[in-house]
């Protein structure tokens, strides 16, 4: 039993630092920036709320939520996935409870999508730890489609906001697909999206360093 955490950590380190196959943006094609945001233990992926070159409008996608009404043209929308109970009940470090963490690791409860409005100026400043990625249209479409499949649709086929409030006025929680596990962590959810879009990430990214390297 004592060897299991060591084996897990070793595998996470090795596979997180080993880049999976990826490609640069197609030469000669226009690109747009997306960002990874890390607080040291959790990573969100942030995409432009609206772009001139792409039909994806995240305000329209999130229509019906209070967050959608607050999105401006130059904002980014950051997406993070994780265990619902842990998300909602661990709003500050002092709220950490071992029983919630264990339940999340065992995949006992449903997942939630945490969505944040992030002004573009905040991403290019020094307050947040970010990694900027330039993506072409195909990479953006693949990443956006992956994020959308992470939402559990309601009867209308649209994302379902949770009744529980976010951390502030500029974020909200939504129903999500899948269940958290030691192998499918919040950070690995982001890593899987990057790999699906042909963007640089580790082969397995249960921890932030497999995503934020190269920042």
Record the SSE blueprint.
Elements: H1 3-17, E1 32-38, E2 43-48, H2 58-61, E3 75-83, H3 84-89, H4 98-105, E4 111-119, H5 120-124, E5 129-135, H6 137-149, E6 171-175, H7 186-196, H8 209-212
Antiparallel strand pairs: 1-2, 1-5, 2-3, 3-4, 4-6
Structural features, described:
It is a single chain. This protein starts with a helix and ends with a helix. A hairpin with a 4-residue loop joins strand 1 and strand 2. The chain contains eight helices and six strands. The chain has a six-stranded antiparallel beta sheet. It is α+β, with helices and mostly antiparallel strands and 215 residues long. The radius of gyration is 17 Å and the shape is globular.
Count every beta strand, where a strand is a DSSP E run of 2 or more residues: 6
Beta-strand percent range: 15-25%
Give the uncertain stretches in residue-range form. Answer: none
Radius of gyration: 17 Å
Structural class: alpha+beta
Average residue pLDDT? 88
Helix percentage range: 25-40%
Helix and strand element order: HEEHEHHEHEHEHH
Shape type: globular
Distance between the termini: 35 Å
Number of helices: 8
Give, in spatial order, the strands making up the sheet with the most strands: 5-1-2-3-4-6
Biggest β-sheet, characterized? Answer: 6 strands, antiparallel
